[in-house]
């Protein structure tokens, strides 16, 4: 071998890495976990081994956060990744892309088979509406899990009025499904005597297919389907799906999302109430403005009784003047007639006619003298009647009976105790005179 074909260590490791990555590509490997390490970088390093060999593996942070299966020493898993080589140390390793428990493929096959069976029987046909918000929500879950804390936190933040009962059950292991079936049966029996319980939430946090397998129990799915109470299922994370989800009336992707779907957000309701209050306030103000305009219009039409009395007084004076003129005209007319008669008497000199004429003149004068007082008396009686009618409707007459009109500094009339406040100066208009008063305390009508 010449010096031209001599490789550096770095070049050799690089060529070996490229060769491994090109020839193997992406593969699945099954084995037992050993030496699981989680440094501060967020990457996960472990060894995958069987009875005769071992393989170093690296699960980088951007993939490790999607791993639903907790990695513990001694667990048997299947990993998907690419064969590579860590050039600085020359370590042969597997760059892991995904991890699942060994045997998950069999579980998935069993899951799909049972899913098709139950679907063909109509077990997944539930779609009853859930009460919104429920009067009494029953949460079936582990009392110590993160799911119950998430649900209670969301309910407390969105709708503190919710009445919630926790029905503790195991959510993992062989006893989980039977325990949940028994709890569901007991809850449905009690629901006949407690109609306030109107909704059931079955929930737990995320996990692997094996961890969530209790929620794929056939009998549990049938019990959910036959439940008297409407059921919401929220098992695992967004990507987790169980038979309990399909059998329930509604599914939520997470426990927190289930709580958000079950109850309204009090902040949204408060915002809607604020909008409605604003509309009510504007409508009320518009009504008050219209009423105030109508009051101003009526006040402009209302004339003071003094003006009406003055008008009637002027009318009486006009009638008196007309009466005087009529009397003067009548007297003048009679005088002219007297002169005319006298002239005729003087021309003809009939003593008897003169005597008769004098008698008629005397009678006419008497009628004239008696008619004038009667006419004046009739006009005065009419005037008195008009004065009494005006006094009957005059606010001054009301004030004369002991009532008073309260006005504020702007002259506005105080009609209710709520229109004044303690310490406010008011003017009291009485039947005779005015008083300045100060409000000490108000007593609104109940």
Automatic annotation (TrEMBL):
Keyword Cytoplasm: yes
EC assignment: 3.1.11.6
Protein's cellular compartments: Cytoplasm
Entry GO MF terms: exodeoxyribonuclease VII activity; nucleic acid binding
Every Exonuclease VII large subunit C-terminal domain range: 126-437
One GO term describing the cellular component: cytoplasm
Domain OB-fold nucleic acid binding: 7-99
Main location: cytoplasm
Keyword flag DNA repair: no
Key words of the record: Cytoplasm, Exonuclease, Hydrolase, Nuclease
InterPro entries, sorted: Exonuc_VII_L, Exonuc_VII_lsu_C, OB-fold_nuc-bd_dom
Gene Ontology biological process terms in this record: DNA catabolic process
Catalysed reaction equations from the record: Exonucleolytic cleavage in either 5'- to 3'- or 3'- to 5'-direction to yield nucleoside 5'-phosphates
Superkingdom classification of source: Bacteria
Family: Belongs to the XseA family.
HAMAP family: Exonuc_7_L
Function, in words: Bidirectionally degrades single-stranded DNA into large acid-insoluble oligonucleotides, which are then degraded further into small acid-soluble oligonucleotides.
Complex formation: Heterooligomer composed of large and small subunits.
Protein name: Exodeoxyribonuclease 7 large subunit
């Amino acid at each position: 071998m010449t010096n031209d074909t001599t490789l550096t260590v770095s070049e050799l490791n690089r060529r070996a890495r490229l060769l491994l990555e090109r020839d193997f590509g992406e593969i699945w490997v099954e084995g037992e976990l050993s030496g699981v390490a989680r440094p501060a970088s967020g990457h996960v390093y472990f060894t995958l081994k069987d009875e005769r060999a071992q393989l170093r593996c690296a699960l980088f942070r951007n993939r490790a956060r999607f791993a639903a299966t907790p990695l513990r020493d001694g667990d048997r898993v299947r990993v998907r990744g690419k064969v590579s080589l860590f050039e600085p140390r020359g370590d042969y390793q597997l760059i892991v892309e995904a991890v699942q428990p060994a045997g998950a493929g069999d579980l998935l096959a069993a899951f799909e088979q049972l899913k098709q069976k139950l679907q063909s029987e109509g077990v997944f046909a539930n779609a009853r509406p859930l009460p919104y918000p429920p009067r009494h929500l029953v949460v079936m879950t582990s009392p110590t899990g993160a799911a119950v804390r998430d649900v209670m936190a969301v309910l407390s933040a969105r709708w503190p009025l919710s009445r919630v009962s926790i029905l503790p059950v195991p959510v993992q292991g062989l006893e989980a499904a039977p325990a949940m079936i028994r709890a569901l049966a007991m809850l449905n029996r009690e629901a006949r005597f407690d109609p306030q319980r109107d909704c059931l939430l079955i929930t737990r946090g995320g996990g692997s297919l094996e961890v969530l397998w209790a929620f794929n129990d056939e009998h549990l799915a049938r019990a959910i389907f036959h439940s008297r109470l409407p059921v919401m299922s929220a098992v695992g994370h967004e990507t987790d799906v169980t038979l309990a989800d399909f059998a329930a009336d509604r599914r939520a992707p997470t426990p927190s999302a289930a709580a958000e779907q079950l109850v309204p957000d009090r902040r949204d309701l408060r915002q809607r109430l604020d909008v409605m209050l604003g509309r009510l306030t504007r409508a009320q103000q518009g009504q008050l403005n219209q009423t105030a305009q109508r009051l101003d219009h009526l006040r402009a039409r209302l004339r003071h009784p003094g003006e009406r009395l003055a008008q009637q007084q002027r009318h009486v004076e006009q009638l008196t003047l007309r009466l005087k003129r009529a009397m003067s005209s009548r007297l003048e007319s009679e005088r002219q007639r007297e002169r005319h008669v006298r002239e005729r008497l003087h021309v003809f000199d009939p003593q008897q006619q003169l005597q008769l004429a004098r008698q008629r003149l005397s009678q006419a004068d008497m009628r004239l003298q008696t008619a004038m007082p009667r006419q004046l008396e009739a006009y005065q009686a009419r005037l008195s009647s008009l004065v009494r009618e005006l006094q009957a409707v005059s606010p001054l007459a009301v004030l004369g009976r002991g009532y008073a009109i309260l006005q504020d500094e702007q002259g506005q009339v105080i009609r209710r105790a709520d229109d004044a406040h303690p310490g406010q100066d008011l003017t009291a208009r009485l039947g005779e005179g005015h008083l300045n008063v100060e409000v000490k305390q108000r007593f609104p009508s109940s």
